[in-house]
Write a structure and sequence with these properties.
132 residues; three-stranded antiparallel sheet
Length: 132
């Protein structure tokens, strides 16, 4: 049944885009919304769907919700294989390529803002490998 749960999450374009972004590291919901160009309500609904199925984890940092993929040790073989496939295909899909470019711009801006102590940063700027 685990594989069916994974494919139910992957069969929606918005959820697929979110998972693609999270393969590069944790993100605040506000940045996911910015990159996708979707309303906060829609993004939050999809993140909640993914969370309930164990596809993402969430932590609170002040007033912000930071989403990430489960820790590598907690990922099923099916999830690891499908995330690896997603990353392989992301370079060929126009929408995912555009999302990845926007993500790079957001991360660059966050690193620049973090250098300014007066700037309010809502999520970590570190990038992590997908470990797929």
């Amino acid at each position: 049944m685990e594989l069916v749960k994974i494919y139910e999450c992957l069969c929606d374009r918005t959820r697929l885009r979110i998972l693609n972004l999270l393969c590069s590291g944790s993100l605040c919901v506000c940045h996911i919304q910015e990159i996708l160009g979707e309303p906060q309500v829609k993004v939050s609904r999809h993140l909640n769907y993914l969370k309930k199925r164990g596809m993402v984890t969430v932590r609170r940092e002040a007033t912000w919700m930071i989403y990430s993929l489960p820790a590598p040790a907690k990922r099923s073989h099916g999830l690891v294989a499908n995330l690896a496939c997603l990353q392989d295909c992301a370079g060929e899909d126009k929408l995912l390529k555009r999302d990845n470019a926007k993500l790079a711009a957001v991360r660059k801006r966050l690193r620049k803002d973090k250098a300014n102590p007066a700037a309010a940063i809502c999520c970590a700027t570190e990038q992590t490998a997908c470990a797929c």
